[in-house]
Amino acid sequence: MGVKSHIGMKYYTPQHKQLTLDLVRSSLDNLDKSNRWVQMGDNLPWSDIEKEYNSKLDNKEKGAGNKPARMIVGAMIVKHRLGLSDQETIDIIRENPYMQYLCGLSEFTDKPIFDSSLFVTIRKRISEEEINAMTTKLLLKQQHILEERRKHAEQDARDKGEEPPKPRRKTRMRLSLQTRRTGSTRES
Question: Closest Cα partner for 44 from 184, 176, 175?
């Protein structure tokens, strides 16, 4: 962190990349790709998630929600990863461009992505067991995709006569959407 002074006044000069107001007001494509929410948004198999999600909702008979699967599933991931209530989830996504990116938005908005009551509707239409089965299936597919990418990167490096990239520290991508049982009175 640097501190500069100007005629007796001191002010902070950041040493790390910070979001500018222009970035926040515009496209989310320029967000830091090392952010955990951006990485998850870029690496999850969204077309498979959408198919699985829509099949569980049985949209032809019950009517589809007017929100994209990525938006709903992304919000559910945030909700359960952080252990938030329905309303807290909507509020934190409204404030965070990285979470909005995970939810599939292309531009930042300071408006709620949907009403928190939609979580209740989803819980009525998709059981906890179905959500967990869907999550497990998608996690296994995602692990396979990431392993294939790693193998291709290693082979590309060997083909160029370079040292293969060192394996990254394994991180568990926990997407379990199982309802947390707590003694609190928070919405689930």
Answer: 175
Separation of alpha carbons 115 and 123, rounded Å: 14
Q: Which residues make Cβ contacts (< 8 Å) with residue 124, sequence separation at least 6?
A: none
The pTM of this model reads 0.65
Phi, psi of 11 (to 5 degrees): -140, 155
The two tokens of residue 81 are 């990863």
| DSSP conformational letter for 152 | H
SS3 content of the chain, % helix, strand, coil (to 5): 55, 5, 40
- CB count within 10 Å of CB 14 equals 8
> Which 8-state DSSP code applies to residue 35?
S
Please give the pLDDT value at position 173: 45
Instruction: Out of 1-10, 40-49, 145-154, pick the least confident.
Output: 1-10
| Number of domains, the chain | 1
Neighbouring-strand partners of residue 10: 5
Q: Which domain holds residue 105?
A: 19-156
Asked, for residue 184, whether it belongs to a domain, the answer is no
| Element (DSSP H or E) covering residue 71 | helix 69-82
SS3 188: coil
Provide the token pair at 119. Answer: 């979580």
Please report whether residue 4 resides in a domain: no
Q: What is the DSSP letter of 2?
A: E
